[in-house]
C-alpha cells in the first residue's frame, strides 16, 4: 500500500505535540501514598520502626527496674560465697544451688514478667484506641483490615503472640516479622499484622 503523502510544512493544529511529549513545564502527577482499606494512609516503615523503638525503650526501663535488684542480690551472694571459700575455691555444688540456679530462675521470672508487660501494653492498653505509647507519639493506629470491624482483645492477642511470644522463642522471627513490611503488598503488613488481620495507619495530628 503506498504511503500517504503529507503536505510539506504541515505541523498539525496549533498546540499539537507528537505522542509521548508533554507540554513545557508539565510534571507528572505525584504518586498517591498507599492507603488502607478504610482509606487512611498506611504507616511508613520508618514511622513504625520509631514507634517500636520507643516501646522497646519503655520495656527496657521496666526490665531494668525489675531485674537490677535481683542481679545485685545474686552478685553479692556470689561474692560472699567466694570470700567464704577456702584456697580450693567455692564448692561447685553450693555455687550451683546458691548462685547459678537463682540467677536462672530470676531470668525466667523476668522473661515472664516482660511477656505480661507486653500483653498489658500491646493488648489491654492498645485496645482502647488502637495505639501503644510509641504509636501515640508517632501518630499511628492499629486498625482491622476489614473496615468497620472491631479491634478486639483476640485480634490484638494474635499480634502479641507472633510479635512477642514467638519473637522471644523463635530465632530471627522478630527480624523477619519487622522487615516483612518492606516488601508486603498491598497493605505493607508485618507478619503479626497478617496473622491478626490488621494494618497500621497514619492518623491526623
Automatic annotation (TrEMBL):
Q: Which InterPro entries match?
A: ABC1_TM_sf (IPR036640), Pra-immunoreactive (IPR051791), RDD (IPR010432)
Print the keywords alphabetically: Cell membrane, Membrane, Transmembrane, Transmembrane helix
Q: Name one GO molecular function term.
A: ATP binding
Q: Is-annotated flag, keyword Plastid?
A: no
- Give the way it sits in the membrane: Multi-pass membrane protein
Q: Which residues form the RDD domain?
A: 42-197
- Presence of the UniProt keyword Transcription in the record: no
Q: Where in the cell is it found?
A: Cell membrane
| Primary site of residence | membrane
Where, by residue number, does the polypeptide cross the bilayer?
A: 49-79, 99-120
SUPFAM superfamilies (UniProt xref): ABC transporter transmembrane region
What name does this protein carry?
A: RDD family protein
What is the organism lineage in this UniProt record?
Answer: Bacteria, Bacillati, Actinomycetota, Actinomycetes, Micromonosporales
